[in-house]
């Protein structure tokens, strides 16, 4: 497995910079392209305005190490109770190596939890691009 691949997360930072907790998104993203029609429309978006999105106020705040490429849309839910770890705003990330991570969206690089669905002993391994008939997903 490849290691050290980073997933970068971008959010608007207030001007002047606000505490990190204020930079996490408030709306939840629970499906690909934001809605069941896959329109990508977020009609309630109030933070990503032309006045706030500029070189000075928008950019990479942190990155998370994961075990493979991230092709799936990351999902975000605020106020999730994680047993033994408290309540967090959580970013869920799935990787090409069949792992799912739950990260604290405030930027802690240590996952709240991580699970792998690979089980080579049972024949469950990462699907190659050849097996699904596409060259869009590499190197697997």
Description:
It is built from two helices and six strands. With about 140 residues, it is mainly β. The chain is globular. The protein has helices at about 20-25, 130; strands spanning about 5-10, 60-65, 75-80, 85-95, 100-105, 115. The strands form two sheets. A four-stranded antiparallel beta sheet has the order 3-4-5-6, with no helix packed on it. It has a two-stranded antiparallel ribbon with strand order 1-2. It has one domain (about 5-130). About 5% of the residues lie in helices and about 30% in strands. A hairpin with a 4-residue loop joins β4 and β5 (about 100-105).
Proportion of strand residues: 25-35%
Q: Assign the structural class, choosing from mainly alpha, mainly beta, alpha/beta, alpha+beta, or little secondary structure.
A: mainly beta
Please compute the radius of gyration using only Cα atoms: 17 Å
Tell me the number of strands: 6
- Alpha plus pi helix count: 2
Q: Which sequence of strands runs across the widest sheet? A: 3-4-5-6
In terms of quaternary structure, what is this?
Answer: single chain
Through-space gap between termini: 10 Å
The amount of helix comes to under 10%
Pick out the low-confidence regions.
1-25
Q: Domains counted in the coordinates: how many?
A: 1
Tell the overall outline: globular
Q: Encode the helix/strand succession as letters.
A: EHEEEEEH
- What is the makeup of the main sheet? 4 strands, antiparallel
Main traits of this protein?
140 residues; mainly beta; four-stranded antiparallel β-sheet; two-stranded antiparallel sheet; globular; disordered N terminus
């Amino acid at each position: 497995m490849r290691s050290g691949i980073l997933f970068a997360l971008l959010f608007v930072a207030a001007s002047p910079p606000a505490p990190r907790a204020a930079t996490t998104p408030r709306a939840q993203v629970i499906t690909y392209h934001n809605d069941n029609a896959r329109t990508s429309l977020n009609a309630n978006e109030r933070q990503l305005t032309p006045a706030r999105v500029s070189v000075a106020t928008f950019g990479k705040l942190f990155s998370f190490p994961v075990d493979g490429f991230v092709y799936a849309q990351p999902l975000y839910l605020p106020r999730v109770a994680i047993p033994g770890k408290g309540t967090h705003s959580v970013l869920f990330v799935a990787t090409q190596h069949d792992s799912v991570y739950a990260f604290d969206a405030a930027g802690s690089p240590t996952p709240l939890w991580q699970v792998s669905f690979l089980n080579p002993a049972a024949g469950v391994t990462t699907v190659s691009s050849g097996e699904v008939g596409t060259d869009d997903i590499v190197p697997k």
